[in-house]
Amino acid sequence: MAQPEKKEIKIELPPEVAQGKYANLAVISHGPAEFFLDMICLAPSTPQAKVQSRIIMTPENVKQLMFALQDNIRKYEATFGEIKPRIPGASGTTPPVIPFMGNN
């Protein structure tokens, strides 16, 4: 069986996007056809937070993202050591990524 031809994808990264947005909290919700990933920056002692970016993906693409993150975490830990989870609410820690299942 012939291997499918691999096509090169040229990706443009505009300067305003290349700077990125910092997020220390993620709220994840989903409907039957898509997942919503809201990336949030939550400041200490602040009752309100602003969504920095919203990514909308198909369930299939979210699963591929999960696999890619798992692979990259393995590579990171092989190079830099184990990532130790912080205890939410302890002094000097950042909030956790919260899996929020809504609209299902």
Give keywords.
104 residues; alpha+beta; 4-stranded mixed β-sheet; 2 helices; 25% helix; disordered C terminus
- Structural class given helices, strands, pairing? alpha+beta
User: Which percent range fits the helix content?
Assistant: 25-40%
Name the average pLDDT.
Answer: 86
Strand content: 15-25%
Enumerate the strands of the largest sheet in spatial order, edge to edge or round the barrel. Answer: 3-2-1-4
| Straight-line distance between termini | 40 Å
Q: How would you classify the quaternary structure? A: single chain
Structural write-up:
The protein has 104 residues and is an alpha+beta fold. It has a domain at 21-83. It is 25% helix and 22% strand. It is built from 2 helices and 4 strands, in the order αβββαβ. The chain has helices spanning 15-18, 59-80; strands spanning 25-30, 35-41, 50-57, 98-99. Strands 3-2-1-4 form a 4-stranded mixed β-sheet. β2 (35-41) and β3 (50-57) form a beta hairpin. The radius of gyration is 17 Å and the shape is extended. The model is unreliable at 99-104 (pLDDT under 50).
